[in-house]
């Protein structure tokens, strides 16, 4: 069984869903649309947030075969099986209710995504280091040029920042400590620093970087997807600002 999470909607705020959950006897029905659902075209069931009538929110389980569920496969730059999920009074099971439950699930979704991103950027940097050691200009490796070395060093710093902030967030979650701020910091580095890493990798590879017979383009495209999934740079800065504003002075 393949289970995936459907966080995204057109308005782009995962914790403020516009999908509506309404009571139907002892059960629930969902109406709304989720977009860019990872593995949505092949998943058997979906976890998704929805607004509950009365002002609350909940996390619901919807099965692919349920009545009122429509699947629209999406064409993506990565070619992964994403889909839009169309819900028209689709039967659903309530898994958890309340904003705290939604934040709990969101933090873990983002933190695990940051771990994936850490590996993506590390491999893009490794490919770049290997290429610049082998590629010669004026009979010397281009890695020996100061400008190239500086760009690569900056990319290394960003990659380490992503790795360390992701580990910090995951560690705090693993021991049941509050980690929303740490998760937002890690995702900020993934969204902002990660783009600098892959742009540097493309730049230092020159034309080879955009050759689809060479693997670097996959990491560039994956980085763009990871930048925006579950909230990009602006969303994380807003979340951090709210956390700071809520702290007692």
UniProtKB/TrEMBL annotation:
Against InterPro entries, the record matches this protein to: Acyl-CoA_Oxase/DH_mid-dom (IPR006091), Acyl-CoA_Oxase/DH_mid-dom_sf (IPR046373), AcylCo_DH-like_C (IPR036250), AcylCo_DH/oxidase_C (IPR009075), AcylCoA_DH/oxidase_NM_dom_sf (IPR009100)
Q: Does the keyword Oxidoreductase apply?
A: yes
The record's SUPFAM superfamilies line, in alphabetical order, gives: Acyl-CoA dehydrogenase C-terminal domain-like, Acyl-CoA dehydrogenase NM domain-like
Query: Cross-referenced CDD domains, in alphabetical order?
Result: ACAD
Q: Which Gene3D superfamilies match?
A: Butyryl-CoA Dehydrogenase, subunit A, domain 2, Butyryl-CoA Dehydrogenase, subunit A, domain 3
One Pfam family here: Acyl-CoA_dh_1
Keywords annotated in UniProt? FAD, Flavoprotein, Oxidoreductase
- Residue ranges annotated for the Acyl-CoA oxidase/dehydrogenase middle domain, each copy included: 18-80
What region holds the Acyl-CoA dehydrogenase/oxidase C-terminal domain? 98-233
Gene Ontology MF: a single term: acyl-CoA dehydrogenase activity
What does the similarity note say?
Belongs to the acyl-CoA dehydrogenase family.
Q: Under which name does UniProt file this protein? A: Unannotated protein
